[in-house]
Amino acid sequence: MNMSFLQELFTTITRRDALRRRRRAGAPPPHHGEVVDACAALLASDGEASSIALASRALALYQGLSPQERVAFFERLAADFAAEPEAIDGAYAAYREARDNDSLQALFLACEPRRQELFRRLNLASDGTHALVEMREDLLALLRERPDFTGIDRDFAHLFGSWFNRGFLVLKRIDWNTPASILEKIIRYEAVHEIQDWDDLRRRLDARNRRCFAFFHPAIGDEPLIFVEVALCKGLPNRIQPILGGEDGGVEDPEDADSAAFFGISNCQTGLRGISFGNFLIKQVVQELKHELPQLKYFVTLSPVPGFRQWLEERRHDESLPRALRETLGELDAAEWQREPERAAKLEAVVKPLAARYLVHEKNARGKPLNPVARFHLGNGAELHRVNWLGDTSAKGLEQAAGLMVNYLYVLDDIERNHENYTANATVASSSDVRDLARKARKMAKGESSK
């Protein structure tokens, strides 16, 4: 029997039955206790067909819960579906006595929270994987206020790390002929440079010097996990507005391009936060592009620098810095400063060096770069190659990074070495130009001449 068909059949019957019951006059919305009972019945089930039906019913009930009832459900997950201390103690005692593989396996099973087996069984429903990803999205929104839910999140992350293993991911090119249902999701999920409308999307996908690739997972159908937009250029790009406006960077034929610029990488599923796809995506897209266009020499990003403007604001109030430097940073408050050549040049002289310092030397509590985009690309083995003044003059670009953008360069022969140095020592691979700018920033902070 076709089990995929059987799963879909049970899911359809169960969801429709649940909807009919809830639509009856006066029928109250689901209570979290109903979901808990359905989950308990699912764990007690030993039949595959009945388990599919129970999983579908439990997920349907969960999706009908109010926000308050979902919190109550997570409280029950934390308390009632955790590992059992008595079982762990007994299994550990047996292992200490026997010291064999059977008792070790029994100890592993005892230590596993019951939630993990519950999630595996909920995944039997035909759309169970996506429903669980959405459930984790709900959970992540609560973690700041409810740190006691962290154990549930770790169980999700543990299972998703296996379910979304690179071996299961499918790379697809997105173009204007891609089904509209997927294109609509690309518009909705674009997180770096907002897609204004269908005409904007067509400019990004339909031009001969544009490429877009996305990872999909067989279990969640046409829901993209992550996608990257690429512009084929002559030379390394330093401004995003020409790219978003559909300019070709001097390249009419893709075979005349020598550079592939990744200008937008968007994660689509909040519930998969912490599950790494981007590094695999970039590396595979590089291979795809090299195969299609073997003349390409440079693989580079044109990346935003979120958080940099906020960091600059903090420097303005740091009285240990020279007064002249702080006063120059105050020019960023002027309206339309980027349109005034003299003022913009004055700011460029201090902001670019400070950006290099921020990206190379400013670290978080874990000793990694403070900037999240830097952590992503440096962790993938890229080099911090160039700081671009007024690379993004949109309102968002000015607000988050004083108009700056950055090129991270992926040199194929250096990726593994850069990645290892970053992982082991948090070493920021950077070009000589960036290092020179960082040294200039150090001199400026001391009030020394940079000449």
List the helices and strands and how they pair.
Blueprint: H1 3-23, H2 32-44, H3 48-63, H4 67-80, H5 85-98, H6 101-111, H7 114-122, H8 128-140, H9 150-163, E1 170-173, H10 180-189, H11 198-206, E2 210-216, E3 226-233, H12 241-244, E4 259-267, H13 278-292, E5 298-301, H14 308-316, H15 323-329, H16 341-361, H17 372-379, E6 383-388, H18 395-401, E7 405-410, H19 415-425, H20 432-445
Parallel strand pairs: 4-5
Antiparallel strand pairs: 1-2, 2-3, 3-4, 5-7, 6-7
Would you write up a description of this structure?
By secondary structure, the chain is an alpha+beta fold. The chain is built from 20 helices and 7 strands. The longest helix has 21 residues, at 3-23. The N and C termini lie far apart (78 Å).
Give a quick summary of the entry.
The protein is built from 20 helices and 7 strands.
Task: Fill in the keyword field for this structure.
single chain; 451 residues; alpha+beta; 7-stranded mixed beta sheet; 20 helices; 7 strands; globular
With strands numbered from the N-terminus, the spatial order across the biggest sheet is 1-2-3-4-5-7-6
The amount of helix comes to: 40-55%
Taken in chain order, the helices and strands follow as HHHHHHHHHEHHEEHEHEHHHHEHEHH
Rg over C-alpha atoms, rounded to the nearest angstrom = 26 Å
Cα shape: globular
What is the percentage of strand-forming residues? 5-15%
Helix/strand structural class: alpha+beta
Through-space gap between termini: 78 Å
